[in-house]
Specification:
It is a multi-pass membrane protein. GO terms for molecular function: transmembrane transporter activity. By secondary structure, this protein is mainly alpha-helical. The chain has helices at 3-12, 24-35, 38-51, 55-79, 86-94, 96-129, 135-155, 158-183, 199-205, 207-210, 218-222, 230-259, 262-267, 271-280, 284-316, 335-351, 354-382, 396-410, 413-417. It has a single domain, classed as Up-down Bundle (Amino acid/polyamine transporter I). The relative contact order is 0.21. The protein has 19 helices and no strands. The longest helix has 34 residues, at 96-129.
Length: 418
Amino acid sequence: MPQDIQEIFSRKIKPLNFERTTGLFGATTIGVGALMGAGIYVLIGAAAGVAGPSVILTYFITGILAFVTTLMYAELGRIIPRSGGGYTYSYKILGSIGGFTSGWFLALGSIFACGLYAIGFAEYTLSILGADVPGYVAKFVAVGVTMFLAYLNVLTPGRKKLNLQSWIIWGNVGILLLLIIFSAFHANVQNIHPLLPNGFDGTLAAISLIYISFFGYQLIANNADEIKEPEKTVPKAMKLSMLISIGINLLIAVAAVMTVPWHELVASHAPLVLVANKSFGGRGWLLISLGGIMASLGALSSTMVSQSRQIFEMGKDRFFPDFLGKLNAKTKQPKTALLIGAAFVSVILLSVDLTFIAKAANFSLLVSMLPVSLALRKIYRKNPDIKPKAKWKNLLPEVTLIINLGLLLTMGIVSLAF
C-alpha cells in the first residue's frame, strides 16, 4: 500500500476491539440477509403497480446497475479493509465533509431500510393469523420486533448471533427457490401482456422503489473489522451475495407476474402469498408467510447490526456524541448505538407510510454513494500503482457516479422533496 495512504490510516484510524470471527461464508450471509430481505416480499406488488409486467425488466436493469456499484465498493474494500463502509472510505480519503455526507445518509438510509423490513415482518406475521386488522396494528407489531431485536443484539455475542442469522437467512433462500420451481408449473404467458402498460417510463420509475433490494452488499463493508482477512474476504463476499441476490430477485419477479396477474399483486399487502397459493395449493400461503417472516427478521437484524457499526464509527470520530462510539465490555457490541438506532426506526414506523419509507431509504442510500465514488477516483488519481490491472475497472468511479446521479434524477417527487 502506498506510503501516503498508510499515513492517512495511521493518523485517522483508531484501534478497534471487535473480534475477527467471520469468514467468507459468514460475510456472504450478512450480505444475502440484507439483499434477500423483505424487499422482494413487500415491494414486488408496489413495483408492479408502477411498471406492470415489465417489473421483470425493472429488476434486471436494477441488478446490473447495482452490480457495477458493488464492484466499486469491492475495490474500496480491497484497498481500505476497515469497518464503516462508505463512511470510512469517504472520511479517510475526502475528509470531514465527504465523510459526514456519506455517513449521515448511510445511517439515515439504514434506519429507513430497517423500517421497511420491520413492516414486512408485521405484514406476513398478520397474514398467518388471517386477521383483517387496521394498519396501525401492523405498525405497532413492527415497532415491537424492532425493539426486541435491538435488545437481543445487545445481549448476544457476535458468533452466536451470526449462527442464528445463518439459519434464518438461508432458510428464506430455500423457500424462495421452492417457490420459483413450483410456480413454473402454473405460469401463464398471457399474464405478461401487455408488457409495458405504463410505458418504459413506468419500468424505469419502479427502480426508485426496489433499488433498496440491491443495497445489502455494503453491510459487509460495515462489518469489516469482524471479518478474517478483510482485504480478500470483503470483496469476494460482496460479489457473491450480489450475484445470488440478482438471480433470485429476477426469478421471483418472473414467477410472480407470470403466475398472478400484475393488478392482483398490486392490491395485496402480501403479494407473494398469492403466488404461493397458486403454486403450492391451499397451504402455500403458510410456507411463503414463513419465508417472509424469516426474510424480514434476517434483513432487519443484519441491517440493524450494520447500522449500529455506522453510528459507532461516527461516534468514535466525533460526528455523533461520544457515548455512541463505545462498546459493551461483555458482548463487544455498540449497545448505545444499537438502541438509539432502534428508537429512530420506531419513530419512522409510527410517522410515515411504506411508500415513503422505501423511497426515502433509496434516496438516502443513493446520496451516500456519491462521495464514495469520488473517494475511489481520488485514490486512483493519486496512487496509480494500486489501480486494478483490468483497465475497464479504472472507470468504476466515473461510471458509478453517473449511475447514482441518474437514479437520483429518476426518483419521484416524494424522494426529491425528502
